[in-house]
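Good morning,

Attaching, inline, the backbone tokens for the sequence recovery test we're adding to the shared suite. The designed sequence is right after.
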């Protein structure tokens, strides 16, 4: 491995840049609980570990070179992001109606929604082929071409995953500390609306992404 300090700085900058994982973690932290946000983070990091393993054993190269495989993963990920976005906007509509029945249903849904937080984080990450492209193009820049790539790829992937988890744990705990303000009906409505729109936008952007 070379330029470790540059690698760490680049990782931090890329991790804090908002993306689908941030949107999902935000939504689940505010609508479910801190526990739901942490479960989402674990799911996302498990997805990163799979991408790390894929990069190490060369599957990322196959995905990038195969237009068919890339397209399948791309559209699966895009549909799932759009589904989550539409579901979020539908929840916002239910909140605005302020119907007691709807509120009871929402309470029941939130009670059991923690069971799917991990799945949401995992699927959002693992079905995003851009993560595979990122690992394949980013990691080799910090590997000495004259040596093997197996262990350097593995170490860098684990470092990136660990930094991602640390950042999102801090992010979720920060959201939880200010949850009193964030969970006000007016604030929550704005966040739900923005999150739903962002998820749909990410889904559309992913669907239009081309394999290179």
């Amino acid at each position: 491995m070379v330029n470790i300090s540059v690698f760490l700085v680049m990782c931090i900058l890329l991790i804090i840049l908002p993306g689908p994982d941030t949107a999902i973690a935000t939504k689940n932290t505010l609508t479910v609980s801190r526990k739901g946000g942490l479960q989402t983070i674990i799911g996302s990091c498990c997805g990163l570990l799979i991408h790390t393993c894929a990069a190490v054993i060369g599957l990322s190269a196959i995905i990038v070179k195969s237009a068919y495989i890339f397209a399948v993963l791309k559209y699966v990920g895009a549909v799932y992001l759009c589904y989550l976005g539409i579901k979020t906007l539908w929840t916002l509509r239910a909140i605005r109606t302020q119907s007691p029945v709807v509120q009871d249903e929402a309470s029941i849904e939130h009670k059991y929604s923690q069971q799917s937080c991990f799945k949401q984080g995992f699927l959002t990450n693992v079905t995003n082929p851009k993560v595979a492209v990122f690992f394949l193009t980013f990691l080799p820049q910090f590997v000495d071409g004259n040596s093997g790539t197996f262990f350097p790829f593995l170490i860098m992937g684990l470092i990136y995953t660990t930094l991602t988890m640390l950042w999102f744990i801090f992010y979720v705990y920060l959201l939880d500390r200010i949850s009193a303000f964030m969970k006000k009906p007016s604030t929550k409505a704005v966040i739900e609306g923005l999150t739903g729109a962002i998820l749909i936008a990410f889904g559309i952007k992913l669907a239009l992404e081309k394999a290179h």
